[in-house]
């Protein structure tokens, strides 16, 4: 598969891994059990912003990328976004801990694992090291309406929350 472009249908077989947030497991040291998240099915009838990045707890990702989405979540919701998800190659345990470290509760932002960067590789958007690249995709009821990859690893322009707000 090649990169997703506006007008494309989101693939029908995309499954990520994640640990659902729960109040009982809200402590950062608590481990839940990873489950499959069938993004194709879950997002078929929703407006979704998925932003991807090279790794949890890394400088640009932790200092700017995720905080920008947390800060702009109300504005994204006001524009009709049902789901905001962050995607990285880290395993579901690390992604869950990263969500907790950012005080994200419930389904405000889904912290999804792209094991072995399988999805990112399938669209040609893995980075040089074979990890999830930095990009953003907006899906509206199964159709891609925005899809941009950053021009460099530590650059945050087209995948930041503010760029998405301008585009939608």
Write up this protein.
By secondary structure, this protein is of the alpha/beta class. The protein has one domain (15-167): Glutaredoxin (3-Layer(aba) Sandwich), CATH 3.40.30.10. It is 27% helix and 22% strand. It has five helices and seven strands. It has helices at residues 39-42, 59-78, 92-101, 118-122, 161-167; strands at 15-18, 35-38, 47-52, 83-88, 110-113, 135-140, 143-149. The strands form two sheets. Strands 5-4-3-6-7 form a five-stranded mixed β-sheet. It has a two-stranded antiparallel sheet with strand order 1-2. The two termini are 25 Å apart.
Layout of helices and strands:
Layout lengths: L14 E4 L16 E4 H4 L4 E6 L6 H20 L4 E6 L3 H10 L8 E4 L4 H5 L12 E6 L2 E7 L11 H7 L1
Parallel strand pairs: 3-4, 4-5
Antiparallel strand pairs: 1-2, 3-6, 6-7
Helix pairs in contact: 2-5
Low-confidence stretches: none
| CATH fold annotation | Glutaredoxin
Termini gap: 25 Å
CATH homologous superfamily identity:
Glutaredoxin
Tally the beta strands.
Answer: 7
Shape: globular
Helix content: 25-40%
Over all CA atoms, what is the radius of gyration? 14 Å
Number of helices, counting only DSSP H or I runs of 4 residues or more: 5
- Report the sheet with the most strands, covering strand number, pairing sense and barrel closure: 5 strands, mixed
Could you report the average pLDDT, rounded to the nearest whole number? 88
Strand order in space, largest sheet: 5-4-3-6-7
Report the structural category: alpha/beta
Report the β-strand fraction as a percent range.
Answer: 15-25%
Order of helices and strands: EEHEHEHEHEEH
CATH class bucket: Alpha Beta
How many domains, in number, for the residues?
1
CATH architecture name: 3-Layer(aba) Sandwich
GO molecular function: thioredoxin peroxidase activity
Keywords: Antioxidant, Oxidoreductase, Peroxidase, Redox-active center
Function: Thiol-specific peroxidase that catalyzes the reduction of hydrogen peroxide and organic hydroperoxides to water and alcohols, respectively. Plays a role in cell protection against oxidative stress by detoxifying peroxides.
Organism: Talaromyces proteolyticus
């Amino acid at each position: 598969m090649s990169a997703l472009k506006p007008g494309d249908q989101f693939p029908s077989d995309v499954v990520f891994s994640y640990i659902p947030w729960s109040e009982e497991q809200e402590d950062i040291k608590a481990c839940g059990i990873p489950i499959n998240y069938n993004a194709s099915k879950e997002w078929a009838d929703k407006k979704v912003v998925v932003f991807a990045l090279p790794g949890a707890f890394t400088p640009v990702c932790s200092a700017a990328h995720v905080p920008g989405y947390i800060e702009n979540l109300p504005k994204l919701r006001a524009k009709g976004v049902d789901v905001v998800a962050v995607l990285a190659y880290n395993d579901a345990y690390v992604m869950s801990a990263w969500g907790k470290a950012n005080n994200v509760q419930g389904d405000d932002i889904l912290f999804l694992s792209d094991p072995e960067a399988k999805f990112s590789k399938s669209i040609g958007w893995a980075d040089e090291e074979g990890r999830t690249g930095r990009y953003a995709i907006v899906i509206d009821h199964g159709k891609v309406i925005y899809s941009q990859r950053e021009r460099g690893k530590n650059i945050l322009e087209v995948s930041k929350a503010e760029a998405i707000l301008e585009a939608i």
